[in-house]
Specification:
This protein is α/β, with parallel strands linked by helices. The chain folds into two domains: 121 residues, Rhodanese-like domain (Oxidized Rhodanese, domain 1); 111 residues, Oxidized Rhodanese, domain 1 (3-Layer(aba) Sandwich). It is built from nine helices and twelve strands. The strands form three sheets. The chain has a five-stranded parallel beta sheet with strand order 1-5-4-2-3.
Length: 271
């Protein structure tokens, strides 16, 4: 299954999917739910980044992965069945929607897509929003073998891989750090901001993405591990690399916010 779906296809086939609104705002835990309540794609339910798609912040960083059992139960509560096709969206960039896309596949569920262009693209086509929250009967979803790859913190410096940092260049170089208490990056990482995967709010074509990653020195026979500030926007690169025809990269879930919790771990600055 292709990881993206267009707003036109979603509108035409809306009844075939379970739709999830993943809008969020880093630093404002209530904003995503407020935006959802103000209007969402018909039939969507809200998937909260901090309450549903992460554990509480701690040694694992700002957005540690949820417990698999907890997320499995949440999927059933959302009405997910083993044969459900999920569509995830956020406001526009796809980074928050990508989190649920990756987590569904982490639970072994392959039938999941991200809405290309998000709610902005949906609204720009003139499609309607609603405030009603749909009633869904509990589903029969059961987790199975993950379809994803994970790099734990203990393997970050020992693994034979290329680390790809999805944050913007000023954070990577350590020139500013608006979120985490220490600035810089993991030694050996390469900076490639995830925003460059997009053009006019949608993902670039497979060919354009392949050229972007090739120009950045990433080869298809390399092992690649993606990270960011807290393991959310890094998934944007995983999705984009797969669109570009690369084998699935690994995610370092704790990312920078976990890395800096241990003062013994090295920190690099500059390019």
């Amino acid at each position: 299954m292709h990881p993206l779906i267009s707003v036109t296809e979603l509108h035409q086939r809306q009844g075939e999917f379970l739709i999830f609104d993943c809008r969020a705002a880093l630093g404002n835990l209530e904003q995503g739910r407020q935006d959802f309540d103000a209007g969402h794609i018909p039939g969507a339910v809200h998937a909260d980044l901090d309450k549903d798609l992460s554990r509480a912040p701690g040694d694992g960083g700002r957005h540690p992965l949820p417990e698999r059992g907890d997320l499995e139960k949440r999927f059933r509560d959302w009405g997910v069945n083993k044969d459900s096709i999920l569509v995830c969206y956020d406001q526009n960039h796809g980074a928050f929607a990508g989190r649920l896309w990756w987590l569904a596949r982490w639970l072994g569920h392959e039938s999941v897509m991200v809405l290309d262009g998000g709610l902005d693209a949906w609204s720009n086509e003139g499609y309607s929003l609603e405030e009603e929250i749909p009633a869904r009967s509990p589903g029969n979803f059961m987790a199975s073998t993950p379809l994803t790859k994970v790099c734990e913190v203990s393997r970050v410096l020992t693994e034979d891989h290329q680390l790809l940092d999805a944050r913007d260049a000023t954070r990577f170089r350590g020139e500013q750090e608006p979120i985490d208490p220490i600035a810089g990056h993991i030694p050996g990482a390469r900076c490639l901001p995830f925003s460059g995967n997009l053009e006019d709010g949608r993902f670039r074509s497979a060919g354009q993405l392949a050229k972007r990653f090739s120009d950045a020195g990433l080869e298809k026979d390399q092992n690649i591990t993606c990270y960011c500030g807290s393991g959310v926007s890094a998934i944007h690169h995983i999705l984009a690399l797969m669109i570009a025809g690369y084998p699935e990269p690994a995610l370092y879930p704790g990312s920078w916010s976990e890395w800096i919790r241990d003062p013994e771990r090295p920190v690099a600055t500059g390019d």
